[in-house]
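Q: I'm writing a short methods note and want an example of a predicted protein-small molecule complex. Could you take the sequence and the SMILES for flavin-adenine dinucleotide and return the bound structure as tokens? Please keep the output block clean; save any remarks for afterwards.
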Amino acid sequence: MTRLTEFRQASRAWLQANCPESQRLPIVKREQIWGGRRRIFPSADAQVWFERMRDKGWTAPEWPTAYGGGGLSAAEAGILTQEMTALGCRPPLYEIGVWMFGPALLEYGTETQRQEHLPPIVRGEIRWCQGYSEPSAGSDLVSLKTRAEDKGDHFLVNGTKIWTTQADKADWIFCLVRTDPYAPKQAGISFLLIDMATAGVSTTPIPLISGESEFCQTFFDDVRVPKGNLVGELHGGWNVAKALLRHERKLMSIMGTMVEKEEGNIIDLARQYVGLDAEEKLRNPLLRHQLAQHLMRAQCDSLTTERIQQQYKHGQPDNNLPLIMKYLSTTEQQSKDELMLAIMGNRGLSWDDATYTENERKLVRNWAYNKAHTIAGGTSEIQLNIIAKRALGLPS
Ligand SMILES: Cc1cc2nc3c(=O)[nH]c(=O)nc-3n(C[C@H](O)[C@H](O)[C@H](O)COP(=O)(O)OP(=O)(O)OC[C@H]3O[C@@H](n4cnc5c(N)ncnc54)[C@H](O)[C@@H]3O)c2cc1C
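A: Understood, no commentary inside the block.
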């Protein structure tokens, strides 16, 4: 028996013995476990599941055991994901520290920084947020203006970040700051870690049309940040930023496997709302055609996601593929949402009408929310520019 086959058998047996039944049901948003000082568990089972996975280091399976991770190879981590998917296990921890910041720190951080920041992420004790965008620097991120002045033993930070997801719930923020205002744009940027509890840091939630508020504007007013919180070279933060964005785009390209699924499948929805003809076919031929197109694209999407995971498993990732998939999968999700609402007809017009079923309201809310996915982590237009330049080698 090969080492990987043994690992598959052992991890399957462990998951079967340790994942509570309730944690094998499809994930719903309100039951996701986010880390942090103010962490709350939605149920006793969720806590048990989280703690068992944490103790094995499987909240960050590929991180070295020296930092609390699982120490798995890419191939083993791929097998673990497959086994968890086969059993329906919920992700034990949702945390951008695990998905994005930790991998960048492993690459660019000092040993002291890794020891300080990685273990609390694995243990779900510290929650991170991302301070990149500013009111006048989104796609054109290199225009950012938040200043960090060198004051000898510390930096003094002043400025503001926007669209900071869950900043009001996060404990730390990783930030892009301008340390040299005279250097050409990206040459003067550094990557700084800031404890949100530091004097001068404040957040203001931004209300959304749905009534929820998951973004904040984050303000820095004379915030003193220790020099030891600089990751990478002074003025060399753009390299760290790009490495982190690669992890963010990889995450977004496989996001569909981690988020709450809409209730029911689209074919059942069509049967329910449009009905069948005498030959048991959907009544509307145009809709049949649209559905067939969607199902073919969805199949391509899932096969390509599987291909990306296999490439990581074998340590031979094609870095262009997540770039392309981020664009395709987020666009496809939106066309699926449009199709679902078209199927529902006048039952797909409101997310708060009390005469609608809960599922109908949820599908309409998803339609609105999923618009964000072609903006977050780099807009589709910017993705296409990058694909043209980097993947296809076209001239700028
Ligand atoms: C759900 C969500 C979560 C987010 N979370 C965070 C977070 O935690 N931290 C953070 O820092 N940011 C976050 N963001 C912000 C996100 O990174 C920015 O919204 C994104 O980079 C776009 O910037 P912008 O909103 O300023 O739009 P702009 O850059 O002003 O773009 C406006 C429009 O112009 C187009 N455009 C701009 N430049 C070009 C070009 N060169 N070529 C062609 N078209 C162009 C864009 O594609 C877009 O359609 C989040 C956004 C969303 C939607």
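A: Remarks, as requested: The chain has a mean pLDDT of 91. The chain has three domains: 3-94, 128-237, 254-391.
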